[in-house]
Amino acid sequence: MNKMNYTSSKKDKLWTRCDKCGTILYIKHLKQNKRVCFSCGFHLQMSASERILSILDFNSWQSLNTFVSAGDPLKFHDQKLYTERLYESQKRTQLQDAILTGTGCIQNIPVALGVMDFQFMGGSMGSVVGEKIVRLIEYATHNGLILILICASGGARMQEGIFSLMQMAKIAAALQIYKKSKLLYISILTSPTTGGVTASFAMLGDLIFAEPNALIGFAGRRVIEQTLQEKLPDNFQTSEYLLDHGLLDLIIPRSFFKHALIETLNFYKYASFQSCGKIDLLFFNSISLISEETIRRLINKKGFSTVCYKQIQNELVSELKQFKLKNSSFLDLNIGKFAKT
């Protein structure tokens, strides 16, 4: 297994407190129990690396796009510079951004796996999170892999503005291509899953699983109550509430999650209709790399100006006009060369 380090600014702490019942818990034993409270069964937050270790077969994890890192296109700052917040989160979690993507096996069944980490800036979805998810989906489509995304996020990353919001549409478009190949996408919702993540890929799974008592929603409870001028149920925006209203397929305790995935994957792997998708030029100029990623890589370079931006924009529009969408048993994305003038 690729070495996965996870450190914390509180790494010397031996004890922690349950967020629900307040019981004092010994961290070493809590980790062995998959961070489930011994007293009340509350599911505390897990790091991305801990989730990977708890789900995948030993030594099967292979990371993808590990070193993709965020830029600062808006030069954003509040009390701190956005770049400072990124650096602090990277140092504390040993992650480049709020998601780990890669491949692995669950009882020898290969899968493409993406795991979000709430401890990296609240698991917020910025350009890197969106880019890594899209590349993972494209990889899964090209190789005919089952896709599993584990969500833990406060929503879109405000420090990146429209660059973060556009990830919602970008990921949804990539998932549409993936689903044309009749491949299985499993979405796993953990606490919290809110905002733009809920409004996009989190709720687009063929199967949507959740952990018990997970906070799942779009807008905050207080905002909805003030808008509707009425009091909401006590269990509103919990996984149990969503299951009762038909928005989830299953609620699974963390200790049974791997077994439940094995049962699901064993059933699906015999499906005769699954096939590998086709995305032309996947490893050269994928749809994600052609557009936003090109600008994101150049925008912080010295000498970059509005003129440069408009030139790149015009080139991208010219090339994107030549996409051909062919509807067959799966969706082909063919990128034509620039038309000769």
From TrEMBL:
Record gene name: accD
InterPro entries, sorted: AcCoA_carboxyl_beta, Acetyl_CoA_COase_Trfase_b_su, ClpP/crotonase-like_dom_sf, COA_CT_N
Similarity section: Belongs to the AccD/PCCB family.
Species of origin: Codium fragile (Dead man's fingers)
Protein name: Acetyl-coenzyme A carboxylase carboxyl transferase subunit beta, chloroplastic
Physiological role: Component of the acetyl coenzyme A carboxylase (ACC) complex. Biotin carboxylase (BC) catalyzes the carboxylation of biotin on its carrier protein (BCCP) and then the CO(2) group is transferred by the transcarboxylase to acetyl-CoA to form malonyl-CoA.
Pathway of action: Lipid metabolism; malonyl-CoA biosynthesis; malonyl-CoA from acetyl-CoA: step 1/1
Record's cofactor remark: Binds 1 zinc ion per subunit.
Repressor among keywords: no
Keyword Lipid biosynthesis: yes
Start and end residues, zinc fingers (C4-type): 18-40
Primary location group: plastid
EC number, UniProt record: 2.1.3.15
Gene3D superfamilies, alphabetized: 2-enoyl-CoA Hydratase, Chain A, domain 1
GO terms assigned for molecular function: acetyl-CoA carboxylase activity; ATP binding; carboxyl- or carbamoyltransferase activity; zinc ion binding
